[in-house]
Amino acid sequence: MAKLLQVLVILILVPACAASLPAYQEPAVPTLDEAGFTSAPSQGGFLEALRDGGATNIVLSQGMHDGRVAAAVMADHLEYVYLFLDGVYLDRVEVLHDPGQSPVHPTLKIVNAGALSAVMLLAEEFEIKGRASGLLAFFDEKGVRRTTTLPLAGFSIKHGGIIDPYIGGTDLETGILFSARNEEGRTWSKVYVLSLEDKKLGLDDMTPQQACFCASYMSWRQGKDGRTLFGMVVE
Predict the structure, then answer these.
(1) Rounded mean pLDDT of the chain?
(2) Phi, psi (5° rounding) for residue 157?
(3) Which residues are bridge partners to 72 per DSSP?
(4) Please, are residues 179 and 191 in contact by the beta-carbon 8 Å criterion?
């Protein structure tokens, strides 16, 4: 009886899924020579260069690395994710993809990963060999240490698309949550937990009801744009 009451309480507390799609800018290829940014300007200067170059859907994610502010910047059709530490350019991560299929509508998240930090990239039209993909790059104060391609085709097929991704949590060792909406704006029927143990990635899943402990997930599930929810939209 007690278990039944607990289930009923969870079902009451979990908000109804709201079909919602973000108000993205129409993707444009920026007039920016990325080859000339092997030593990018400051974080502020780089964002200004992106705006001046007509970049669309610019996103900025920030987190802490060893007491310092780490940041990652990405926009539609860029070939790299750019990393900064305390506002100073650190390094960049090449976004490998199929020819003519550069990612749009990017979502970024910087998280802790033991002695390293990591940035996770999810985006639309991000495919490798015709299969939906994501990117996870590990870095420290000296630059990028290693990168991992995230195979997402199974998730995209199962759930009907990867739109407006949700990436919750701040530490890979304890696990971060990720989910998304399908092409109709409905949230996935599962929430996935990506974790890091002994430098190996692990994957688990849970129901939306089990994820209701996370306030940001509940807000996103009710229709709030994931980029706005985590303050990553750059005007």
Answers:
(1) 90
(2) -70, -45
(3) 61, 83
(4) yes
pLDDT in tens, 114-140: 999 999 999 999 999 999 999 999 999
User: Strand pairing partners for 70?
Assistant: 63, 85
Q: What is the DSSP letter of 2?
A: H
Whether the pLDDT of residue 208 is over 60: the answer is yes
The predicted-structure confidence for 56-101, as pLDDT tens digits, reads as follows: 999 999 999 889 999 999 999 999 999 999 999 999 999 999 998 8
Q: Structure tokens of 212?
A: 């209701």
Tell me the β-bridge partners of 168. Answer: 177
Q: Which two tokens stand for residue 165?
A: 């991704």
Could you please report the per-residue DSSP string of 26-64? PP------GGGGTT---HHHHHHHHHHTT--S-EEEEEE
CB-based contacts of 220, cutoff 8 Å, min separation 6: 164, 166, 187, 226, 229
Residue 55 carries which side chain, given as an amino acid letter?
Answer: A
At 3 the three-state DSSP class reads helix
Q: Which helix (H) or strand (E) covers residue 5, if one does?
A: helix 2-13
Q: How many CB atoms lie within 10 A of CB 164?
A: 27
Q: How far is CA 161 from the centre of its chain?
A: 15
> Among 196, 184, 104, 207, which Cα is nearest to 150's?
196
Q: What is the DSSP string of 100-136?
A: T---EEEEEEEEEETTEEEEEEEEET-EETTEEEEEE
| 30-65 per-position pLDDT tens digit | 998 888 776 668 999 999 999 999 999 999 999 998
